[in-house]
Write a structure and sequence with these properties.
- It is a single chain.
- With 433 residues, the chain is an alpha/beta fold.
- It has 2 domains: 252 residues, Ribonuclease Z/Hydroxyacylglutathione hydrolase-like (Metallo-beta-lactamase, Chain A), CATH 3.60.15.10; 163 residues, 3-Layer(aba) Sandwich (Rossmann fold).
- It is built from 13 helices and 22 strands.
- A 7-stranded mixed β-sheet has the order 6-5-4-3-2-1-22. A 7-stranded parallel β-sheet has the order 17-16-13-18-12-19-20.
- Helix 3 packs antiparallel against helix 9, helix 5 packs parallel to helix 13 and helix 7 runs parallel beside helix 8.
- It binds zinc ion.
- The site of zinc ion has 7 residues, from loops.
């Protein structure tokens, strides 16, 4: 089995990884570069496209999740290659791309391409010639994200994708139970390491888990009649925590696009996770008060037009996006809203600062309430301990070289192999025998 990371050995995002045997080949993720994390010497999108697909067989492209830095270049993939993603992730991506299509005047529309993506299922093996892939659902700030167990040429590789264990999906020690029951010892681990360059940020943040985020949100909602949350529309674990934290007597406000995402997540994941179920008030699900166009939603979906003359009296929590005008306009009607900032703090100041976010916050009161979508060092260490791989390849990190110097990883430093983008790593069938 051979492994080649075309992009992502030394950067966060823009990920593309190839797994091949003598006759078969699959690609994992085909992501767009995040402008703020793109390394200067990585392949451009066009170079990448040629390098990955020109004159080469490809049995499929598997996306770990719907974030743009993993799925963003899907339109460029040759149309005869089958694409795969998780079932709920596909539904969320459809809503997302429909929105993108509606605002982009030029270029190819994406919805029909996304509708054609096939779905893999959690725990069910997919065969790509002699490459066997088992997807395992994992916790991340994108709902319905997956790790892949890859088996070929008598070897076992675990590809983590983006993961963590401090969200709703990771509660009750799910990661450990899953690894022990279904994965066990592996030969090689390809692990994300996003947080390795953000360890100071983790230490400064008093909020460690999504459950803690929910508890703090409840405290804030009780003492603020107008709370406005800046959160990624697809960060559904955080959104469900916020939704559940709204006290009885107060209301929940968002736009139709956001409501569709929440309703989709509830329909699919509510069966398994109580926090993905609606709050029942006197036996009926909490209403969504919709700002802007209802886009076809109505009483059947429990959605009602927001009327701030009433909502302001009762108190409310509104999910907002800084780039949508309707949210900016209604901010002017509020008396003294508290802005809850629930995104990466790097967008607030410094070289990655986003002027639109700064502008939206303006002089309003603000509290940062956010947890990372990525694994803390101790979670990565736990995964290494549980899977006991001979080789560890870091990716999706700016700190690949420093990986083995992190104290928690000291016992494993001899196992770490830092690859360069485009370098082929051959997992010999005779290794360790
Ligand atoms: Zn991600």
């Amino acid at each position: 089995m051979k492994i080649k990371i075309y992009r992502g050995t030394h950067q966060i995002g823009g990920c593309v990884t190839e797994i091949s045997t003598e006759k078969h080949r699959i690609v994992i993720d085909f992501g767009a570069n995040l402008p703020e994390h793109c390394q200067k010497d990585t392949l451009s999108d066009e170079e990448l496209l040629k390098a990955v697909f020109d004159h080469k067989v490809c049995d499929g492209v598997l996306f770990t999740h719907y974030h743009g830095d993993h799925v963003g270049l899907y339109k460029k993939i040759p149309k005869d290659i089958p694409l795969y993603i998780g079932p709920t992730a596909k539904k969320i991506l459809e809503i997302l791309i429909q929105k993108v299509d509606s605002v982009s005047e030029t270029g190819e529309k994406g919805l029909s391409l996304v509708q054609n993506i096939r779905c893999y299922l959690p725990g069910r093996k997919e065969l790509f010639g002699d490459i066997k892939i088992t997807p395992f659902m994992t916790d991340h700030s994108a709902l319905d994200s997956y790790m892949f167990l890859i088996e070929a040429d008598g070897k076992k590789v675990l590809f983590t994708g983006d993961f963590r264990e401090h969200g709703i999906i990771g509660e009750n020690n799910t990661l450990e139970k899953m690894v022990q029951a279904y994965i066990g010892k592996i030969d090689l681990l390809i692990t994300e390491g996003t947080m390795l360059s953000r360890m100071g940020e983790t230490q400064r943040n008093p909020i460690r888990t999504e459950a803690e985020l929910g508890r703090r949100a409840e405290e804030l909602f009780r003492v603020n009649k107008e709370s406005v949350i800046l959160v990624s529309s697809t960060n559904l674990d955080s959104i469900m925590e916020f939704y559940h934290a709204v006290p009885w007597g107060m209301d929940f406000v968002c736009d139709a696009y956001q409501a569709k995402l929440i309703l989709t997540a509830m329909a699919d994941k509510g069966k398994y996770y109580p926090k993905y179920r609606p709050v029942l008030i006197h036996g009926k699900p909490r209403r969504f008060y919709i700002i802007g166009d209802l886009e076809g939603l109505g009483a059947k979906e429990n959605c009602y037009k927001a009327d701030f003359s009433i909502l302001k009296k009762k108190g409310f929590t509104m999910l907002a996006r800084e780039n949508k005008m309707v949210f900016r306009e209604c901010m002017e009607k509020f008396s003294d809203p508290l802005i809850i900032y629930s995104k990466w703090t790097g967008y607030l100041e410094g070289k990655h600062a986003d002027p639109k976010i700064r502008d939206f916050i303006g002089k309003h009161r603000m509290e940062i309430l956010h947890t990372s979508g990525h694994a803390y060092v101790e979670t990565i260490e736990k995964l290494i301990r549980l899977t006991n791989p001979e080789i560890i390849i870091p990716m999706h990190t700016e700190y690949a070289e420093k990986f083995s110097r992190i104290p928690a990883f000291a016992p494993y430093q001899d196992r770490v192999r830092v690859l360069c983008d485009g370098e082929e790593y051959c997992l010999s069938p005779f290794y360790g025998t």
